[in-house]
Design goal:
By secondary structure, the chain is mostly beta strands. It is 3% helix and 57% strand. The longest helix is centred in the first third of the chain and has 11 residues, at 10-20. Residues 1-34 have low confidence and may be disordered.
């Protein structure tokens, strides 16, 4: 594994790194006209909102737009499976299955990581701690944690398990890992200042697909059939079963989580849970959600033709038309970013 860092600003650092990789960097003075950002063509688009900026990665490369709407950089590169992770002012970008990852936002300005294995996932937290899961030769995997300044501070070797995702607690004290084994799923917890595993929770015959922190003292793991709420001390605090419904997506906010449940007949239900595992709200939908974004204590729900702003109990705070929108996310300044094919706009709901 090799890392590089430089002390330039996050945006310039990203540009500089891609120049080192012999990639084309084009800084445009503006990319927003009439309240819209023009997006470059490319398939498989994914989006993120680090701070008050907007990032878009597609099969043709990576673009980052500033808070004033100007396009800060455009990087032309073929990405087979583009992926982004953002939290606070931090952004990680990579090609799933590749071996290189870019990280910007810390005082070092740039972190270039060569994992030495195929990237499975990467996750950055609000404090800038980055957890990278990768598979090496023979399928053996690792989860490596980097500090906001790009220092590798912890590495877990998975052994006979396959790491799916790692996430660092808000304070940077704990690393939680979601892994798969021949028997099912595993949730494992480590202290970043120690060498021993604190605990491991096995889910035989069941594989959680989502893992997230709901504050410093609560961890939530979600599978198709239930949500588990655990504490760093290793106890199962609560459990919420989904009955005849099946979870297919889950998002995590500040102290709450929202799961999207399906009944197998095209109907969808959203349920929200507190950090303690109590059900906060339930919302029956007549349409399948196109996107769901959580930030702070709010949720942004995108349906066909409509965007709704919700609180943690799924009560509606506002709504607006969103014809043609294919994705939506909440920015740090409270705006909602609605993404359409070829352009995006930031609005208040």
């Amino acid at each position: 594994m090799r890392t590089k860092s430089s002390g330039i600003s996050p945006v310039l650092a990203l540009a500089a790194m891609f120049s080192l990789a012999a990639l084309l960097f084009i800084a445009l003075l503006s990319g927003r006209e009439g309240g819209r950002w023009t997006l470059a063509a490319g398939g498989g688009g994914v989006y993120a909102a680090p701070g008050n900026t907007f990032a878009c990665a597609s099969s043709t490369g990576l673009r980052v737009y500033g808070e004033d709407g100007g396009q800060l950089l455009s990087i032309e590169r073929r990405l087979e499976s583009p992926a982004l992770s953002a939290a606070g002012d931090y952004l990680a970008a990579w090609d799933a299955g590749g071996e290189e990852l870019l990280f910007a936002g810390g005082t070092q300005g740039l972190l270039e990581v060569e994992t030495g294995g195929e990237l499975v996932s990467a996750r950055v937290n609000e404090g800038g701690f980055l957890a990278v899961a990768a598979l090496g030769g023979g399928g053996l995997g690792t989860v490596t944690v980097y500090s906001p300044d790009g220092e590798a501070v912890y590495r877990w070797h998975a052994g006979t398990a396959w790491p799916l995702e790692g996430c660092v607690s808000p304070s940077g004290e704990y690393l939680a890992v979601l892994a798969a084994s021949e028997d099912g799923g595993q949730v494992r917890l480590f202290r970043l200042d120690g060498t021993e595993e604190l605990w491991r929770a096995d889910t035989p015959g069941e594989l959680p697909f989502a893992l997230g922190w709901l504050g410093e003292e609560r961890l939530c793991a979600v599978s198709a059939g239930r949500a588990l709420f655990l504490t760093p001390e290793g106890g199962l605090e609560a459990e919420q079963g989904f009955g005849p419904l099946s979870a297919r997506r889950c998002s995590f906010g500040e102290g709450f989580a929202v799961a999207e449940l399906a009944d197998g007949e095209g109907r969808c239900t959203l349920v929200s849970f507190s950090a303690e595992g109590e059900r906060l709200g339930r919302l029956e939908l007549d349409r399948t959600p196109l996107d769901l974004s959580l930030r702070g204590e709010r949720a942004l729900l995108l349906l066909d033709g409509e965007a709704r702003l919700l609180d943690s109990s799924l009560s509606e705070l506002g709504a607006r038309a969103a014809e043609g929108a294919v994705a939506a996310l909440l920015a740090g300044n409270g705006e909602a970013i609605l993404v359409r094919r070829g352009w995006a706009e930031a609005v208040y709901i």
